[in-house]
């Protein structure tokens, strides 16, 4: 079997840096919307609703992007399998960055009426399209550059970038949150969004220096680029595609409960400060970020499946204890709960995720299969903050129904992981690798 091509050490470092910085900056864009939805959008874009309903509507617009993430996965995933991983990531950087920056320029409801939330939703859709292809592309590029036996370690840096984006977005709102409410709601909230315009240039600079995946270059040279990757993905990889959908249910649900819903819960229900809530999210993000390379490397030794199963089981078991700690209203215990939930439950499954998804699909449809299946899972559970807010309201402010929701999402992903095959030893550099169906005659590029 053909081993994946070795990148030179300097080239590999450049690929790692490009994926890390790119995912960090693009997911900064995606996460700041969630924080803004929890803190100010209910007042600025949906002022006619009472505070609780306004929060629900704000979280609903947050979830809209998840409906369009699968579209981005299919559209840009097809491009990634046809014209290359690197080129497609340049396009997603522009889509995501410009869409986010423009949110910072939007007039509010008081200024232009109902057109304000309409424009907000349209720009949120742009974020969804870009995010739908960003992680799959960065992870695929990393996995295909990684040396044998270290794919989990190197690919985990794509997910590390996501967590850095979460931290950066939360820190941005923590800083502007120091402003008085009047200034925060009039202009302060715009700053984190406007910074995205500057970040576009940083991301492009880094990504333009990254070389194309050696696996994709080999496909171009052997003329085995698949002309219809969407069709081929669904035809040859039905089991892997379903596993990919289910595997992303739990981590999508819990990250936005821990990073978005909990901000609203701690401030609105427990009456604590924004700084307390946002500090907890930052602590969780730091713990998760620091642990990513460790879990990635561990998956290279013991496999992807054991870590995936452990992470969702722990997440389910810890759901009720997590809210017991939060409900003490003691900042230190809230931060402890977030650190444990993130570092022990959430971190393993997302550290393994880049390599796990890359190994589900053959080289010719890897970007499409990865991005599309994962983002359909995101679309299914991406409304998690809205669901959690609704369950909280149904429970008269009690979070125990939210804990049950966490357990339910963990159960779905557990089923997916149990049906998944252990894949750490497969050769992802093999152009004709077909795990679900016997390979047909290689399609040639038109």
Question: Architecture, according to CATH?
Answer: Up-down Bundle
Class derived from helix and strand content: mainly alpha
Number of domains: 1
Shape: globular
Query: With helices defined by DSSP (H or I, 4 residues minimum), what is the helix count?
Result: 19
| Share of residues in strands | under 5%
Q: What is the percent of helical residues?
A: over 70%
Listing every helix as H and every strand as E from the N terminus to the C terminus, the arrangement reads HHHHHHHHHHHHHHHHHHH
Mean pLDDT: 84
Give a count of the beta strands, DSSP E runs of length 2 or more.
Answer: 0
CATH names the topology as Growth Hormone, Chain: A
Separation of termini?
A: 27 Å
CATH structural class = Mainly Alpha
Q: What Rg is obtained from the alpha carbons, in whole angstroms?
A: 21 Å
Molecular structure report:
The chain is an all-alpha fold and 446 residues long. It is built from 19 helices and no strands. It is globular and about 60 Å long. 57% of the residues are buried.
Task: List the topology elements.
Elements (H helix, E strand, L loop, with lengths): L8 H31 L1 H4 L6 H32 L2 H19 L5 H4 L2 H31 L5 H26 L4 H8 L1 H18 L6 H8 L7 H8 L1 H10 L1 H21 L4 H29 L1 H23 L4 H28 L7 H16 L2 H11 L5 H20 L27
Helix pairs in contact: 1-3, 1-4, 1-6, 1-7, 1-9, 1-13, 3-4, 3-6, 3-17, 3-18, 4-6, 4-9, 6-7, 6-16, 6-17, 7-14, 7-16, 12-17, 12-19, 13-14, 13-16, 13-17, 13-18, 13-19, 14-15, 14-16, 15-16, 15-19, 18-19
Summarize the structure.
The chain is mainly α. It contains 19 helices and no strands.
Features of the shown structure:
single chain; 446 residues; mainly alpha; Growth Hormone, Chain: A; 19 helices; disordered C terminus
């Amino acid at each position: 079997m053909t081993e994946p091509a070795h990148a030179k050490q300097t080239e590999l470092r450049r690929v790692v840096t490009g994926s890390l910085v790119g995912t960090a900056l693009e997911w900064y864009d995606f996460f700041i919307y969630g924080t803004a939805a929890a803190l100010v959008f209910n007042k600025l874009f949906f002022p006619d609703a009472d505070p609780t309903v306004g929060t629900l509507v704000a979280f609903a617009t947050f979830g809209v992007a998840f409906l369009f993430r699968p579209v981005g996965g299919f559209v840009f995933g097809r491009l990634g399998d046809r014209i290359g991983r690197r080129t497609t990531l340049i396009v997603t950087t522009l889509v995501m960055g410009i869409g986010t920056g423009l949110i910072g320029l939007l007039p509010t409801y008081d200024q232009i009426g109902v057109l304000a939330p309409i424009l907000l939703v349209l720009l949120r859709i742009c974020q969804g399209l870009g995010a739908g292809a960003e992680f799959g592309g960065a992870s695929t590029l990393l996995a295909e550059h990684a040396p044998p036996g270290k794919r989990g370690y190197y690919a985990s840096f794509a997910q590390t970038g996501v967590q850095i984006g979460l931290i950066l977005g939360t820190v941005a709102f923590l800083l502007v949150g120091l402003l008085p409410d009047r200034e925060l709601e009039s202009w302060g909230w715009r700053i984190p969004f406007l910074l995205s315009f500057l970040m576009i240039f940083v991301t492009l600079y880094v990504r333009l220096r990254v070389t194309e995946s050696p696996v994709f270059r080999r496909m171009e040279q052997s003329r085995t680029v698949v002309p219809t990757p969407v069709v081929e993905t669904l035809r040859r990889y039905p089991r892997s595609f379903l596993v990919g959908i289910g595997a992303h249910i739990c981590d999508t649900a819990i990250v936005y409960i821990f990073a978005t819903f909990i901000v609203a819960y701690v401030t609105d229900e427990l009456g604590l400060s924004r700084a307390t809530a946002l500090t907890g999210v930052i602590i969780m993000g730091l713990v998760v970020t620091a642990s990513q390379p460790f879990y990635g490397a561990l998956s290279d030794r013991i496999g992807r499946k054991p870590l995936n199963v452990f992470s969702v089981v722990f997440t389910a078991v810890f759901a009720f204890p997590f809210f017991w700690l939060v409900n003490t209203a003691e900042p230190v215990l809230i931060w402890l709960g977030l650190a444990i939930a993130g570092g022990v439950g959430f971190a393993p499954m997302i550290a393994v995720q880049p390599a796990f998804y890359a190994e589900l699909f053959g080289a010719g449809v890897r970007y499409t299969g990865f991005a599309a299946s994962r983002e359909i899972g995101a679309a299914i559970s991406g409304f998690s903050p809205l669901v959690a807010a609704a369950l909280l309201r149904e429970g008269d402010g009690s979070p125990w129904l939210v804990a049950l929701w966490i357990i339910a999402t963990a159960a779905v992903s557990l089923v997916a992981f149990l049906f998944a095959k252990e894949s750490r030893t497969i050769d992802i550099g093999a152009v004709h690798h077909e795990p679900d169906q016997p390979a047909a005659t290689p399609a040639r590029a038109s």
